[in-house]
Specification:
With 73 residues, the protein is α+β, with helices and mostly antiparallel strands. 62% of the residues lie in helices and 14% in strands.
């Protein structure tokens, strides 16, 4: 499941929990699924942070990929 799919599923779970009168067992199952989606999304975002690069233009007009340093932003 992609990050976007996890976030969409999480939104659907929240809407379901807010909008429907679910029995306790179903509500707990949806809540647990939502927590799992949130954890998986956090892991995916952390992994993405490790791979983020920035594109910089050199003086000669060429472009160079560099590791992104949040301190440079």
């Amino acid at each position: 499941m992609t990050l976007e799919q996890r976030l969409l599923r999480l939104e659907a779970i929240v809407a379901e929990l807010e909008g429907q009168h679910l029995d306790l067992e179903t509500a707990l199952a949806r809540f647990e699924e939502g927590v799992a989606c949130l954890r998986e999304a956090a892991v995916a975002l952390a992994a993405a942070e490790l791979h983020v690069t920035k594109l910089s233009e050199a003086a000669d007009g060429t472009f160079v990929l560099e590791d992104f340093d949040a301190d440079d932003a």
